[in-house]
Structures are given as structure tokens and as C-alpha cells.
Amino acid sequence: MKKENSEIYRNGKLIELNNPQPEIRKNAESAKDWAYADEAVYLYRMAVLFKDRFLDPILLTDRRRLPDPVISFANLRNKNTLAAYTLVRNPQGLLYEITMNNVHYIDEEQSGKKVKRWSFGKWAQLETLLHEQVHLWQQNFGTDPVRPGQAYHNKEFINKCESLGLHPMPGAGCHTRLADGNFAILMKELGVEPPNLGEKMNDLDIDWFKWFLDSLGKGRKGTSTLHKWTCPECGLKVRIGIKGDPKIRHDPCEQKIGHPVFFVKADGITHTIYKGKK
After folding, report:
1. How far is C-alpha 70 from the chain's CA centre?
2. Which domain of life is it from (predicted)?
3. By the 8 A CB rule, do 168 and 158 touch?
4. Angle (nearest 5°) at CA 234 between 229 and 239
């Protein structure tokens, strides 16, 4: 048999050997005049650790390894988005891009130098990074990869995240509980402490990232025509466009307490939610 070039084929398609990612990473990490250079160093290092520990820990001879991401920082025009994985090539023609939403960075001073810090803390930042890397894993090695226009957080994605200790909500993708399992074990090894969410966060299906920021009084303020309502038991807040009483009930709290729990106006006034029979 005639010996061909040593390129490896997968599913009849040539696996690209031209990989610009190492040079992109090198440039990002060495750009000392760039505000996000230190963050790039940290996140690229953690992305490699996540790949080796969680997503592609065993070297196989019948396929390539999981690609490393291209990490970028940009305003994603939506403060409710923490980060994003780009399914297709980005405007520069690059694949596997993970973009951290820079509206969630704050400036701090350390040793007389201004540095960027993720406003939710390291634990939440690394949950976010691993979440996006699971997208990268699914698009390369998953059996049900997402196509543009489809829901990003399908069953395969959720199952993979759960196996690592992340708890994203199907469809929406927001994390409903603090990560545990293998992720928490690794964080303990690295000395990354979990945030203190308080007892009222336990077992409630809400976005703990945003809940935590609001609890610290660091939520971004803005104007809104929506009306704020709150659960009197756990403090969960929602905004809706209905002026009258929407008669919203909070099922997780009802299951714990054993009687109906209605949201009340978040106006600082004490409301009677439930009154038993005399």
C-alpha cells in the first residue's frame, strides 16, 4: 500500500493540523499593556486543567484530543449572560471561542496596580468557564451537538455538567445550585473557597450567580417599568409587567412548608400570605 502523508482522518474529513490557538494564547498572555492579560493567563491555565481532569483525561489513539478554547473578553450586551461559547467561527475565523462577559469584571488595586477581578468570585468564574468548556466538549465529542438556532442546553449537555458537579437548568442554562461533586473536590485542592450563599439558597431552582451578587448589594442598577415581587419565605425576587396581583406561587417553598406561598410586592411592607383556619 502506498504510504500517504501522516494526516489523520476522522469520519472521512481531514483533521485540521493548522492550529492557531497556541499563538493566540501566547500573544494574550504576553500583552502586558492589556487589562485582561493576567486573566487570560489564569483562565487558559484553568481551561487546560479542566480538559485534563474532566473533559478529555485519557489519551486515545483513534481520535484527536479535545481542542483548547480561544478565550476572549467582550461586552456581550446582556448583563444576564456571564459568558458564551461560539458555535461557529468568530469574526476572525477562529473556532472554539469562549467569551467572558466583561461587564462582570470590576477594577481592583493590588500592590499599586489595577487588576481585573470577576465580580462573582473565583469559584463562580471557574463554574462559568467549565460550563462553556462543556459546550466545547459537546460540539466536538458529544453525540447530540447543538446546531445554530437550537436550544444550547439540551439533555446531553445537562447530563455531562451534572457528572462534573455543575447544576445548569435545562434550556435556560443558569446554575440552580452551588457546584459540588468533582468540581468541588478540585476547588478544594486548589484552595478556592465556595461563596457563602446562606441557608435560604439550599435546594431552590434559581440562578445563584445573580442571587449572590444581589445579596452583596452589587447588582447593577437600572431603570425598569417592571414591578418587583418577592417570596416571603426565601426572598427570591422576580420582576413582571403586571400591575395587579399576579397570584404567583412559589412551588419549592410550598413543598418545604406544606401550604401555599404567594409572592408579595417587594415594597418593604409586611404582607399576610397565608392564614390558617381558626
Report:
1. 16
2. Bacteria
3. yes
4. 20
